[in-house]
Amino acid sequence: MACNRFVAFSGFQKRRFFDTLSGMATTSSFTFSYDFSCVKALALDLDGTLLRPDNTLGELTINTLKACREQGLHLIVCTGRSPEASEKYRAAIGAAGPMVFFNGAEVTNVDAQGCRSDVIYPSLLRFDVIDFCVDISRKTGVYFQVYFPETDGPEGRVGKRPMAERGGAEWDMYAKHTGSPPLVADIKRALAAAASRAAMQPDKFGCIKGMFLADPAKLEEIRPLLSEQFGDTVYITKTLDTFLEIMSTGVSKGTGLTLALDRLSLASEHVLAFGDEESDLSMFESAGFSIAPANAKNKVKAAARVVVEANTEEGAARFLERTILHVKRSAPALQRL
To answer: Could you tell me the fold of the domain covering 36-121+252-330?
Structure first.
């Protein structure tokens, strides 16, 4: 039986998965079917989805994802974090293969030892966009940082660690949150140096992404300034309430996931996607089935096929235990949710 079989329903916004012995997910409003035996990969957001509020993976999550891997599933980390800031989580669950970092701005093969190869930057952000963001930051005092791609110029490797023009509470928060403390330097001077190096490495002419860190209300003031200046030539998304990220148009977790699936020769219907934030919506569109935790943003829960327990309860792992692992272990032809 083909994958992605759904019974149509409408007018139901909040879909909640209920744990039953039969594997039937139902409310008074709907039931639907999906053949979980065809699932070959899991697209996994980290912050707010797999990670608990203290930025740790629970024991149930680690053991469940390892069990999924042992059953032959590919674990694809899809995160806004850098490879370095994601490594301890990737290693904990034993994921290997193509991974999506920086919300899709980089797709990289990572082996079991954490060695990276075949890096793809789908589309780098123009230097003039970063220059404009720095002007906003200097004028308003709002914290801003940027990621450069790795380069091999005479000054050594530049990339994979963010650069900011000042320290402070935002710097401290980001360093604690990701374990990747930003370099403090003159970003405009770094842009000029990067442009010079890019003459020898044209595939790295640009930046991976920029990021404003501020209160949500302040970010909502900045977002229209970027949209007015650059229109649809940039992709703007929130990854946390206090993170506003700017990337090149065409970059998203969805496009990154598609590149990762191409490397694995998998179709989208073979993938389950888990996410909680605005940046995960494009990933939902590139997967056969989407799951959001109860702590997700309302529009993410509305877009998801199923809403499960919050990240504090390791909802993603509980869902996988009730579905994928149950199916893989018992091998029925069709699981009715």
So the answer is: Rossmann fold (3.40.50)
